Amino acid sequence: MIKNLTNVRGITCWGAHTGVKSMRRDLALIYSEVPASAAATFTKNQVVAEPIKLSRKNIANGKAQAIVINAGNANACTGEQGRQGAEAMVKTTAEELGIDEGLVLVASTGLIGEPFPTDDVVDGIKENIGKLSNKSNAGSFAANAILTTDTFAKEGFLEFDVDGIEVNMAGIAKGSGMIHPNMGTMLAFIVCDVAISPKLLDKTVKAAVDKSFNMITVDGDTSTNDMVAVLCNGMAKNPELTSTKDPGYNTFKAKLEEIMIHLAQTIVSDGEGCSKFVRYEVVNAPDEVMGRKLIREISSSTLVKTAMFGRDPNWGRIMCAAGNAGVPFDFEKTDLYLGSDKELVKMLEKGKPQDFDRNNMKRILRQSQLHIKMDLNSGKHRAEGWGSDLTTDYVMFNSVYTT
């Protein structure tokens, strides 16, 4: 049996169908037996969904014990009615579990601007709280209940040692459209049984999000509902991590980055209508932040995306996008490679175009996994990101999204 959320000590969950979505689970519940250290990042969009406003408030004290998520309605641009709906989700969950409302995080995903179906969601919470379980199928139900246009559930699990103590970490995510690096532009929930202080967890989560969810893009649109939340309930009973110098902290940090990168990559691989997964790499940069900025600009370029879809080795589009990133780099020192992980072809050397076999390159670009690599030859730092192509299927799908 594949391990998931329910294999983390003290975590129970459930996923159910409440009627908000037709024929699919649309309500997920995640619960920790004890209050957990909690940290989260949220959308940078100025139009913010009601659940995001509430979760920002509730997580301010660095503690949480439950997460409730509905799919099928984003509860964004819904005004007072939507605010009351988000508050009802929190209130009902807290009452049914017998915990403080401030320990409940809430998230929503689905159509923007539709009246929020408060009664259906609240009734669903009441009917399903009693079904919370630590059985494996409960974890799978929760992973499936947060999906919208996704074609598969996105899950991850890691087992590792922190200061000699076995620790479990698991996560679920959703996202396939309205994905653009500026927090992560999707939903992701990670639970772990490590003991760590809220302050240190917050610092670690933000750094890990920058290397993972903030380095993906599908269509360049930052959602109104983006949220990454991490709960660590301490039930592994390791000596609490309070400092970056504590034994085992570096292992925890690396594993958190690993599971976030895994979940981020699954989102890109499920991009709406996409036919290609593109790995972007910048090496030998003066600093990592510069490399990330270059990747974000290149990976979000419509012209680069369409070239990858059309199997067009138009490297000029890549360099043009890089030049628009707002960071100084020396084009005449730059090498550029295009292809796949197994067949990278040098297109530029120190800024000079290189001869290449166009027919062979078109053959390489037919592959579903592509690789674009820039070598700045100006430092020792590296950055990586992930994106998709832009297809006619994406345009057709999103042109009739609500109709």
From TrEMBL:
EC number: 2.3.1.35, 2.3.1.1
Role according to the record: Catalyzes two activities which are involved in the cyclic version of arginine biosynthesis: the synthesis of N-acetylglutamate from glutamate and acetyl-CoA as the acetyl donor, and of ornithine by transacetylation between N(2)-acetylornithine and glutamate.
GO cellular component terms, semicolon-separated: cytoplasm
Pathway listed: Amino-acid biosynthesis; L-arginine biosynthesis; L-ornithine and N-acetyl-L-glutamate from L-glutamate and N(2)-acetyl-L-ornithine (cyclic): step 1/1; Amino-acid biosynthesis; L-arginine biosynthesis; N(2)-acetyl-L-ornithine from L-glutamate: step 1/4
Site (Cleavage): 184-185
Main location: cytoplasm
Subunit field text: Heterotetramer of two alpha and two beta chains.
Subcellular location: Cytoplasm
SUPFAM superfamilies (UniProt xref): DmpA/ArgJ-like
Family assignment from sequence similarity: Belongs to the ArgJ family.
Reactions catalysed, as given in the entry: L-glutamate + acetyl-CoA = N-acetyl-L-glutamate + CoA + H(+); N(2)-acetyl-L-ornithine + L-glutamate = N-acetyl-L-glutamate + L-ornithine
Cited InterPro entries: Arg_biosynth_ArgJ, ArgJ-like_dom_sf, ArgJ_beta_C
Keyword Translocase recorded: no
PANTHER family documented for this protein: ARGININE BIOSYNTHESIS BIFUNCTIONAL PROTEIN ARGJ (PTHR23100), ARGININE BIOSYNTHESIS BIFUNCTIONAL PROTEIN ARGJ, MITOCHONDRIAL (PTHR23100:SF0)
Residues annotated to bind substrate: 148, 174, 185, 272, 398, 403
Protein's name in the database: Arginine biosynthesis bifunctional protein ArgJ
Active site: 185 (nucleophile)
One family name in Pfam for this protein: ArgJ
UniProt keyword annotations, A-Z: Acyltransferase, Amino-acid biosynthesis, Arginine biosynthesis, Autocatalytic cleavage, Cytoplasm, Multifunctional enzyme, Transferase
Annotated GO biological process: L-arginine biosynthetic process; ornithine biosynthetic process
